[in-house]
Specification:
With about 220 residues, the chain is α/β, with parallel strands linked by helices. It is about 40% helix and about 15% strand. It is built from 10 helices and 8 strands.
């Protein structure tokens, strides 16, 4: 695996300066910052450069799903921006996944199985995870409820990145399949993605620190 902190912060904010403040304040506890469509459409290359300049890593979560050649070019563009990891949709199919994974010196590719706001079955998630692995992806995005099953079917080195993380004191909001940071990491999550429980907290630094401390000594 790697020595990065397991918590990825979802920078789901509209303002670049707010994002910069969060990155600087939370840097002791966060190594990877997720840039999704909200912030990317506002700030694009600027926010990616800012994160890289701060010595942190960018998880570009744009969930590419298009014809294979277009996704391949998108992966190359992300690589040229210095992105650490990115998402593609597993439902894009085998050809798209294989072509995306074939890009030389590419970022990590994490395939989305089923969004944590949607209901599904473990069988469907595992089927998509197996497809992603067979096509050369580095891992998948999956709810905490399927971590152990994916690891059992795809191997411990196949990365599982889990949104739907909610500390005990947090509400589930629009998520359907959730778990605490501790239970997700104990189940084998390589990274957990946390947004509102940190960003919307009264004290984001304390919230990030609490999650960091709760999982830092958990071994898989």
């Amino acid at each position: 695996m790697n020595n990065l902190n397991k918590t990825i912060l979802a920078l789901d904010v509209f303002d670049l300066r707010k994002a910069e403040s969060l990155i600087k304040d939370l840097s002791p506890y966060i190594d990877v910052f997720k840039v999704g469509p909200i912030l990317f459409l506002q700030s694009g290359k600027e926010v990616i450069k800012m994160i890289n300049d701060c010595g942190k890593k960018v998880f570009l979560d744009l969930k590419f799903h298009d014809i294979p050649a277009t996704v391949e070019r998108a992966v190359k563009s992300a690589r040229d921006l210095g992105v650490y990891s990115l998402t593609v949709h597993s439902c894009g199919g085998e050809e798209m996944l294989r072509l995306a994974s074939s890009v030389e010196n590419r970022p990590k590719i994490w395939a989305v199985t089923v969004l944590t706001s949607q209901k599904t079955t473990p069988e469907e998630v595992v089927k998509r995870a197996k497809l992603a692995k067979d096509c050369g992806a580095d891992g998948v995005i999956s709810s905490p409820l399927e971590i152990e099953t994916i690891k059992a079917n795809c191997g411990v080195d196949f990365e599982v990145v889990t949104p739907g993380i909610r500390p005990l004191q947090s509400g589930v909001n629009d998520q359907k399949r959730v778990a605490t940071p501790e239970s997700a990491v104990k189940a084998g999550a390589d990274f957990i993605v946390v947004g509102r429980p940190i960003i919307a907290a009264e004290n984001p630094v304390a919230a990030a620190r609490d999650i960091y401390n709760s999982i830092k000594n958990i071994s898989k």
